[in-house]
Design brief:
Distance between the termini: 103 Å
Helix content: over 70%
Strand content: under 5%
Structural class: mainly alpha
Radius of gyration: 29 Å
Number of helices: 11
Order of helices and strands: HHHHHHHHHHH
Length: 225
């Protein structure tokens, strides 16, 4: 005995094959495949985009303090370290006391504390505990298309994503959703991703220690009074 749902899905697929919107989506997929894309990979990424909710889901999933709270905590610790460095620097200014600090290997503590505070300030907190699976799927899809064809093909990708959204709604016997992920929104995602990559590169370069500064500090000893 045939399952009514299987029969209904079979009829639905037959209707879709005659629908101009899905015919255009099918032809778009064929064109991208001819340019080097893998249709199964595209279908998989488009399915992830359609299957996940939009927005940041990390806060609900991971819990704990988010990036803004951690950033404020780091700034507070850095400020305390700088204040402590200043207090120890005052000890160095006491006449002839520097030799006692040198004996205890404490002469460079102010500089070391300043360096630690600076290193803490370079910790990247932006994006911590962020998890936006829909955005990640869109980036993966666009990256596959670009690496395969040399271009992002925003219009074609938008069509395929919306075709997947409509297909899923029809399978659930729901009305077709409004078009989403248009060309402009896809371009914005790529622009933000590139901006984030550049910021990460700058932060990474800034976090590398300066060997000249370390050498100067090791030789910076006061002259005897």
């Amino acid at each position: 005995m045939n399952n009514p749902n299987d029969q209904w899905l079979s009829e639905l697929k037959g209707q879709i094959q005659k629908d101009p919107f899905f015919q255009r989506a099918t032809e778009t997929l064929r064109q991208l495949a001819a340019k080097g894309c893998d249709p199964m990979v595209i279908h998989g990424y488009a399915g992830r985009v359609a299957g996940y909710k939009s927005g940041n889901l990390g806060a609900r999933m991971y819990g704990g303090p988010g990036a803004p709270k951690i950033a404020r905590r780091i700034r507070a610790i850095s400020g305390q370290l700088k204040k402590l460095a200043g207090q120890i620097e005052d000890l160095k200014r006491i006449r002839s006391f520097w030799s006692r600090m040198t004996e205890a290997s404490c002469f460079h503590i102010p500089e070391e504390l300043e360096e630690i505070a600076e290193r803490l300030s370079r910790i990247r907190t932006k994006g911590f505990r962020d998890w936006n699976p829909q955005r990640e799927a869109i980036l993966d899809l666009l990256d596959h298309v670009r690496s395969s064809t040399g271009r992002y093909h925003y219009e074609e990708v938008s069509l395929l994503i919306n075709a997947e959204l409509v297909w899923r709604a029809m399978k659930r016997k729901q009305p077709p959703p409004e078009p989403r992920h248009d060309v402009d929104s896809l371009k914005m995602i790529i622009q933000r991703w590139k901006k984030e990559r550049r910021a990460q590169s700058v932060k990474l370069r800034a976090s590398k220690p300066d060997p000249d500064a370390q050498q100067n500090r090791s030789t910076d000893m006061p002259t005897p009074e």
